[in-house]
Amino acid sequence: MKLKIAELRKGKGISQQELADVLGISFQAISKWETNVSLPDITMLPKIAEYFDVSVDELLGLKPLKDELYIPSETGTKDYWSERLEYIKRSRSSFWNVDYMQFLIEKVWGINKPINVLDCGCGYGFLGDLLLPILPRGSTYTGIDFSEKLIKYGKEYFETKEMPIELICDDVINHISSKRYDFVISQAVLRHLNNPLQFLSKMISFANKGGIIVCIEVNREFENGGLYIEGMDYGFLCEQPGFRTMWKNELETQGRDYSIGMKVPDMMKQLGLKNIDIRMNDKVSYVSPDSDGYLQKVSDFIEAKGFNMQRTLEDNNIDHFMNHGMDRKKAEAYCIRHNKISSFIDSNPNNLTYTHLYGLLISYGIK
Q: Which one of 64, 138, 222, 286 is most buried, counting C-beta atoms within 10 A?
């Protein structure tokens, strides 16, 4: 619990002495409350809450302050992704069955001649590595990403591979190109943006008339229900304490939409695409000690899901969730849940069996 007296007092523009005069106590008592040395008498809480026009729960830090300044998520920023190279490498390893992508290319999209591909928000170029070996010979891949670090790694990664790949470091929204592409794609990008419609519109602008636009996105409701670990309760693993409230708040406050996977087809329709449809990726990972590459798969899974670390109940950890709409009880419940999963995995490093589903939704349409 963290009293919000200091924040409320500073927001009101009064000194500790002025607040002490209002409450009829010493300013030293106020100082002790603000540094968590002591707590106000329980009978004084309603008076303090009334003075600041907040609830007692808000005063005690059990609920977010209604007028607290929202701190936007940074997952749509260059700096954030520049430090997430390892996460991207680990998580993308379990995104696709190659044969399903080949099915999409040949049977769903009917691609039977060389095409020029543009990947918007490409990271280090994962999709280039996936697509080019199964596209018709003569196809090319261009990736754009705003992270210098990811692009640098991608260029080094593809340097020894004889593939027609070009990686460009630029912000997709600001990128200017006279070239038009037959196939424009993004993967797990729109979910992190404050204005996904603007990004999709820019993607469409890069396509030839008749070009295919593809957006691959996760729906968090699917993702949160997509994990079973042998030896743990599935209902416990699927719990989402406070997340719906947080997602709603992020959407209304920031424009960041964790249900974007379900909404992309409507966005495509709004922007004038034709023949719009949607598929679900068939990739489900089942991993047990008998699986080929077991240790690497488990290591990738742990890194990608953040189960290699404990979430502390310190205020600076809880404050982020509360700032985004959770109450303290649910924020703490989420951290405790995460820590129990992490501890279970840590205690079974060589004997872990799990089933994991991202539930990627693949929306596409024709310009």
A: 64
68: confidence class by pLDDT, cuts 50, 70, 90: low
10-28 pLDDT per residue, tens: 777 888 888 888 888 888 8
The structural domain count of the chain equals: 2
Alpha helix segments (H runs only) across the chain:
5-12, 16-23, 27-34, 45-52, 56-59, 78-82, 85-92, 98-103, 126-131, 148-158, 196-205, 220-224, 234-238, 243-254, 260-270, 294-305, 315-323, 328-346
pLDDT (tens digit per residue) in 233-252 = 999 999 888 898 899 989 98
The verdict on 201 and 271 lying in the same domain is: yes
By C-alpha distance, which of 58, 183, 177 is closest to 115? 183
Range of the domain at 176: 78-223+243-249+257-281+358-366
pLDDT tens readout for residues 273-326: 999 999 999 999 999 999 999 999 999 999 888 898 888 766 567 878 888 888
Paired tokens of 112? 């039977």
Using the structure block, give the residue that is written with the tokens 């699917």.
Answer: 222
Pair 12, 52: CB distance under 8 Å: yes
Cβ-in-10-Å burial (0-12, 13-18, 19+) of 252 comes to: exposed
Residues 92 and 19 in one domain: no
Q: What angle do CA 251, 254, 256 make, to 5 degrees?
A: 50
The Cα 269–Cα 277 span in angstroms is: 10
Residue 358's CB: how many other CB atoms inside 10 A? 23
